[in-house]
Amino acid sequence: MNQSKRDIRAFTKEELRRIFEENGDQAFRGNQVYEWLWQKGVHSFEAMTNLPKATREMLDKHFVINHIKVDVMQRSDDGTIKNAVRLHDGLLVESVLIPTDTRTTACVSSQVGCSLNCSFCATARLKRMRNLLPDEIFDQVRVIDEQSKAFFGRPLSNIVFMGMGEPLMNYNNVLKAIDKITSAEGLGMSAKRITLSTSGVPKLIKKMADDEVKFKLAVSLHSAIDSVRTSIMPFNEQFPLSELREALQYWYQKTKNRITYEYVVWKGINDQRKDVEALIKFCKFAPSKVNLIEYNPIDDGEFQQADSRALTLYQTMLEEAGITVTVRHSRGKDIDAACGQLANKTTKN
Ligand code: SAH
């Protein structure tokens, strides 16, 4: 990439209008360029066919469109598609398309690598290298929308921020991307169909509530006992459950949106009655439901999925306590596309 050229998608519509005005051109050209970039998603200035040729050349001289490229696309036996996505600086992230009978869900990444070090997650083995830009997050969604139309004959219906990275550690860019995804000038998707999944940074959960976001919130809980949670998610030491709980109560008061807790049950870690009791108590702090996620092994055998007796214990005890619980089976395991398996295995960096 030519370093002197500027990323055109870093500019707001108003800024683009001003650029044209300052160049002695008409401001509405800014609107046209903005529409080509965000609504039509073109990859080159050449494709902006309602602009005069000289204008397209001027843009090409000074700006660049850093569109992502799908390096490798893998298809699972169950229809899941995993994309290894090359960024403009050569780094890689992964994003996944998950089809069901009625929906297509995009699972997108928010960072290259991750800084959180959860001991059961493959992404944690990569160090965090950088935050994704709003347009790099947006492009993952657009690419999956196109794949959904091409392979399943329907547009993308849902988005989950459950790919690589911790979305709240890239707060501004993730919110900007969601803004573009939901805006009529972008993809026009409903925010209610978007779920942000976080390990739980209390002050940023509160900030989201203050910013009146309209998307849904999922929290990767995995244990409601501090010592256990810290042993598998070291980040819990810094942000203990009492602070998380307070932030979630604040979230619910402000948004009236119920919280989803993601939870894996591991053998010998959180498979006892006391673990379920702690979870039930935690669930009572704010309206919530529990997704029991199947564990996807990440090769060193340190963690093992609990046996079915433990899972049944969780299910029955939660149900008896009046808490909604669903069991989610993983998709795309054969291509390492399931939760926690995203680690750029297929492609060398
Ligand atoms: N950092 C965010 C989003 C990425 S992880 C978060 O923590 O929520 C998406 C989900 O996959 C999280 O619930 C995470 O705890 C879970 N996960 C990570 N590794 C996993 C594994 N090996 N098997 C099953 N789920 C896993």
Automatic annotation (TrEMBL):
S-adenosyl-L-methionine binds at G165, E166, S197, S220, L221, H222, N296. Residues 100-334 form the Radical SAM core domain. CDD domains: Radical_SAM (cd01335). One of its GO terms (biological process) is rRNA base methylation. Gene3D superfamilies: 1.10.150.530, Aldolase class I. It holds the Pfam family RlmN_N. Binds 1 [4Fe-4S] cluster. The cluster is coordinated with 3 cysteines and an exchangeable S-adenosyl-L-methionine. The keyword S-adenosyl-L-methionine applies. It comes from the Bacteria. It is found in: Cytoplasm. [4Fe-4S] cluster binds at C114, C118, C121. Its EC number is 2.1.1.192. Its cofactor is [4Fe-4S] cluster. It catalyses: adenosine(2503) in 23S rRNA + 2 reduced [2Fe-2S]-[ferredoxin] + 2 S-adenosyl-L-methionine = 2-methyladenosine(2503) in 23S rRNA + 5'-deoxyadenosine + L-methionine + 2 oxidized [2Fe-2S]-[ferredoxin] + S-adenosyl-L-homocysteine; adenosine(37) in tRNA + 2 reduced [2Fe-2S]-[ferredoxin] + 2 S-adenosyl-L-methionine = 2-methyladenosine(37) in tRNA + 5'-deoxyadenosine + L-methionine + 2 oxidized [2Fe-2S]-[ferredoxin] + S-adenosyl-L-homocysteine. GO terms for cellular component: cytoplasm. PROSITE patterns: RADICAL_SAM. The keyword Disulfide bond applies. PANTHER family: 23S RRNA METHYLTRANSFERASE, RADICAL SAM CORE DOMAIN-CONTAINING PROTEIN. Reaction proceeds by a ping-pong mechanism involving intermediate methylation of a conserved cysteine residue. Specifically methylates position 2 of adenine 2503 in 23S rRNA and position 2 of adenine 37 in tRNAs. This is Probable dual-specificity RNA methyltransferase RlmN. It comes from Capnocytophaga leadbetteri. The lineage of its organism: Bacteria, Pseudomonadati, Bacteroidota, Flavobacteriia, Flavobacteriales.
